[in-house]
Design a protein that fits this description.
Elements: H1 5-21, H2 23-27, E1 32-38, H3 42-58, E2 61-67, H4 73-85, E3 91-94, H5 104-110, H6 122-130, H7 138-149, E4 158-162, H8 169-178, E5 182-186, H9 193-197, E6 202-205, E7 223-226, E8 230-231, E9 238-239, H10 244-247, E10 253-254, H11 261-281
Parallel strand pairs: 1-2, 1-3, 4-5, 4-6, 6-7, 7-10
Antiparallel strand pairs: 8-9
Bound molecules: guanine (GUN).
Guanine is lined by residues 93-96, 118, 138, 167, 265.
């Protein structure tokens, strides 16, 4: 079974749009998401367009602040501080990666944690690992939603996560633990990785290398979640981290790239923006 993140996110966004339509009467306005795009990286521009399109669809107020790549760190932090103080702004997202002269961690720490729709602020990350209420990072949250929608039982399963980034690998491992899976976190240099991945009931791959996961690494019946977004050098097409053609026949459930995890990330960003809005309204 191929899980369509595209279809699931379309359904969830339609439900959110209905909810958001009731907000002006209840709260006097709709959620307001501000995205900051630094420079002209084509991949970042494309991600930001996807976020704008989704925000439009669910009925948010939204805007994108585009700055040149040469903006100083201090100027960028000042923009963020202004948005923190703006009572009409509910969600702030700074598209990553940033130019080398800007510290990503300083930027993330500067965003008010109540407006941190990415769930990247250290206070949010700490709450996640302490089991306290928090804004969940979008990609891990989207992955759990997809697994549940596909009817995958997580409790008691062996989950293997390849990748240990703060954005995907580590938080998805925590969310799988919260669902009572037993989780192994690996990386690209893990010794004898195939012997570990072959034991996985659920395999999540977030490495960023095309065809990193080959058919010999996956056992029959595995649930395969592909978080990779790579360009195929020959065709120029978007591909994930798993060799989809070779693995799809073995997997019980698999996510495609594009149209899998990516749309769910954006969908959860919309959900997080509503959560931040409601949190601020109360
Ligand atoms: N760049 C790639 N993925 C993300 C994301 O989820 N949030 C932000 N802010 N930047 C990204």
């Amino acid at each position: 079974m191929i899980i369509s993140g595209k279809d699931l996110s379309a359904k969830l966004k339609a439900e959110m749009a209905e909810r958001v339509a009731t907000f002006p009467e209840k709260y006097g306005r709709v959620p307001n998401l501000v995205v900051i795009l630094v420079g002209d990286n084509p991949a970042s521009q494309s991600y930001v367009r996807g976020k704008e399109k989704a925000a439009e669809l669910v009925g948010f107020k939204h805007s994108t602040i585009c700055t040149p790549a040469t903006i100083s760190e201090a100027e960028l932090l000042d923009i963020i501080k202004g948005l923190n103080e703006d009572p009409e702004v509910d969600g702030i997202l700074v598209q990553l990666p940033l130019p080398k002269h800007i510290s990503e961690s300083k930027v993330i720490e500067t965003i008010a944690k109540e407006k941190d729709v990415d769930g990247f602020h250290p206070a949010n990350v700490a709450s996640l690992w302490q089991g306290l209420p928090c804004i969940l990072p979008c990609t891990p949250k989207g992955i759990i939603k997809m697994l549940k929608e596909a009817g995958v039982e997580i409790k008691g399963k062996r989950a293997v996560v390849i990748g240990r980034s703060n954005i995907v690998g580590l938080p998805v491992a925590k969310l799988l633990l919260n669902e009572n899976a037993t989780v192994t976190v690996c990386h690209s240099k893990t010794v004898d990785l195939p012997s570990i991945t072959r034991q996985a009931d659920i395999l999540v791959v977030a490495i960023g290398r095309a065809k990193f996961v080959t058919a010999d690494m996956v056992s029959e019946g595995t649930v395969v979640i592909d978080v990779g977004v790579n360009r195929d050098e020959q065709t120029g097409k978007l591909v994930g981290d798993v060799d989809f053609e070779a693995i799809e026949p073995k997997a019980s459930v698999i996510t495609p790239v594009p149209g899998g995890v990516g749309p769910m990330t954006i969908c959860c960003l919309m959900e997080n923006t509503i959560e931040c809005f409601l949190g601020r309204m109360q």
